[in-house]
Specification:
The protein is mainly β. The chain has a 7-stranded antiparallel beta sheet, with no helix packed on it. It is elongated. The N terminus is likely disordered.
Length: about 575
């Protein structure tokens, strides 16, 4: 669902329908935004999508920004038509110049610290960390253009023969495998490849119906090529697609399937996506208005959109299925690109051919890391990726009448259990799921969760030496004398271990059901930096020194679920992060 954003500048004042005191507040909001920000305004749909903008460069006429974790790159045209490539170092916040040749129409692409571009029919490279040109391990034809780079490949298009007629040029797509060091053909005689793009081991493009400035747009089908299998997949078949982009397994593109032709771009272009894993297409933004030039990184898709007048920048979170406004202003906001949570774009440019440039802007987007889903909640915090960079994670829910989400909340939630750290799996015949600190096991006979005896299970498979060496968890004491005793006496024998450490004892007994949650105490150990009580289901630690996660004297509960994952006892398929449920 898309919610309306009300913090718009003056050109939206007529759309602000407020009455009485609300009208005054509405006008004050609009007026203050307009007066304080004469440059492009940034708004947000709701709190979890806070956007923080900053100006990169307003010198010259700037075009085609791209971005990686190292730098923002763009082309700047100066007086006399000279065009060179410039960059902004994201670590030092300093401007730098890449080229000084002044030749126009440079096509460039960036991945990590490597920038590549065509200059005077030569493929060139630049190390963004050293600010120095480099020699690339391949040579491509002088007729090549639009090179793109990913971690695994460099790809380019080239003209194998002169253009047969105005508006039609067959091109070849070739690529270089960066890991194997070999070049290969991707596609032959494609009817103009629109927005060749690469991510990892996949190369995507759209085969257009022709291209001529001001007349024919390049609408066609989206194709994907895997460099390992050397196989090609046709993603769409309606010949209405243009400008595809890809990140990992998700392809996005602009689509003209429901439009009426109107000039260079149609009047109702939409944004669609495709999941290479599930082979499923899905809509991203289908509201009225033109939506073009999508880009994607991790869970975020960005594009330019004219639904309310000029071109603005919008975003969409694949995890939450929420759309939000990123940038709006009195002039056009165009050509968005994204890396991590950083979006870059041009303020003041035009999309007519040939395009004109403007100022380079950027914005950091604060992303939600977890959100509600049907019958539960979805968490990305334990997916193994830097926060906010992947849409994958683990859902915890009450699906199929297995009330893991209800029990998660009853048992203290994240503060007590940590984040979900696996999908559901079967353990000893019962449906189970790992949290960071505990492992849930659903017991249908009592309709509640029991905790798995994680550290007993690790003993059974011979991991006690590993626990001692790498986790400072003592080996279990000899409890053979428990045999034949009543349960109450067994409990008392084990609870005497708590007298070894008053702070750990207090933490253990403060729990409303310590045996159910921690299990019986099984061993106690003292080490250089920590005192440790080993239970059947949990390990309690009192730290003797300050650590990044605890102060000296503080008692913490070790992440038993994470330890079980690390030891390899949870099925491999259960620990692979999943996409959010639809």
């Amino acid at each position: 669902m898309v919610r309306q954003v009300r913090l718009f500048p003056q050109r939206l004042a007529s759309k602000c329908t407020c009455r009485g005191a609300l009208l005054v507040l509405c006008l004050l909001m609009l007026g203050s935004v307009w007066s304080l920000h004469p440059q492009p305004q940034v708004a947000w749909a709701w709190q979890q999508y806070q956007v923080t903008p900053f100006l990169i460069s307003d010198k010259g006429s700037n075009l085609r920004p791209v971005v990686s974790e190292y730098a923002i790159i763009w082309a700047s045209t100066e007086a006399g038509g000279r065009q060179d490539i410039y960059g902004w170092d994201l670590r030092t916040n300093k401007l730098f110049r890449v080229t000084e040749t002044g030749t126009p129409n440079k096509w460039y692409s960036v991945h990590g610290n490597l920038l590549i571009w065509m200059d005077d029919r030569v493929l060139r490279g630049f190390d963004l960390s050293r600010k120095a040109g480099i020699t690339l391990p391949l040579a491509i034809p002088g007729s090549a253009y639009r090179p793109v780079i990913s971690a695994d490949a460099i790809a380019w298009t080239s003209f194998p023969f002169p253009c047969a007629k105005v508006g039609y040029c067959g091109v070849d797509i070739d690529a270089y495998d960066r890991q194997r060091g070999v070049a290969f053909s991707v596609a032959k005689n494609v009817t103009e490849a629109s927005s060749l793009f690469a991510s990892g081991k996949t190369i995507v493009w759209a085969d257009g119906t022709g291209y001529h400035y001001g007349t024919s747009p390049i609408f066609g089908n989206v194709w994907a090529f895997n460099i390992d299998s050397r196989s090609t997949l046709q993603v769409t078949n309606q010949r209405t697609a243009m400008k595809p982009a890809i990140w990992e397994n998700i392809i996005v593109w602009q689509d003209d399937r429901d439009s009426t032709p109107e000039g260079f771009y149609s009047n109702n272009t939409k944004i669609y996506g495709y999941d290479l894993e599930t082979r499923r297409e899905f809509p991203i933004s289908t509201s009225p208005g033109r939506k073009i030039s999508p880009a994607i990184y991790g869970p975020l898709v960005v594009w330019q959109d004219n639904r309310i007048g000029n071109w603005d920048i919008y975003g969409y979170d694949l995890r939450t299925k929420m759309e939000f406004l990123i940038a709006i202003g009195p002039t056009n906001q165009i050509d968005p690109r994204i890396s991590g949570n950083l979006v870059v774009w041009i303020d003041g440019g035009t999309v007519v051919q040939p395009p004109s440039g403007g100022a380079v802007w950027a914005a950091r987007i604060s992303l939600p890391l977890d959100w509600d889903v049907s019958n539960g909640h979805f968490y990305t915090q334990a997916n193994g990726f830097p926060p906010g960079t992947s849409h994958k994670g683990y859902a915890i829910s009450d699906a199929n009448d297995i009330l893991f989400w209800a029990e998660f909340q009853r048992l203290g939630g994240v503060d007590s259990l940590g984040y979900p750290a696996s999908r559901r799996f079967i353990w000893d015949g019962f449906t189970s799921q790992a949290m960071q600190k505990q492992v849930f096991q659903w017991r249908p006979e009592v309709k509640q969760v029991y905790f798995v005896n994680v550290f007993d299970e690790l003993s059974k498979v011979g991991k006690d030496d590993w626990l001692l060496a790498y986790r400072q968890v003592p080996k279990p004491f000899d409890w053979s004398a428990d045999a034949g005793l009543p349960w109450s006496e067994i409990v008392q024998r084990h609870l005497k271990l708590l007298d070894s450490n008053p702070a750990i004892k207090a933490r253990y007994l403060a729990d409303p059901d310590p045996i159910a949650h921690f299990g019986l105490p099984m061993a106690y150990g003292e080490y250089e930096n920590v005192f440790v009580l080993r239970g059947q289901r949990a390990v309690l630690q009192q730290w003797r020194v300050d650590t990044p996660w605890a102060k000296a004297g503080q008692v913490t509960v070790a992440n038993g679920g994470d330890i079980l994952k690390e030891a390899g006892l949870i099925p491999r398929e259960a620990i692979v992060p999943e996409s959010p449920p639809q």
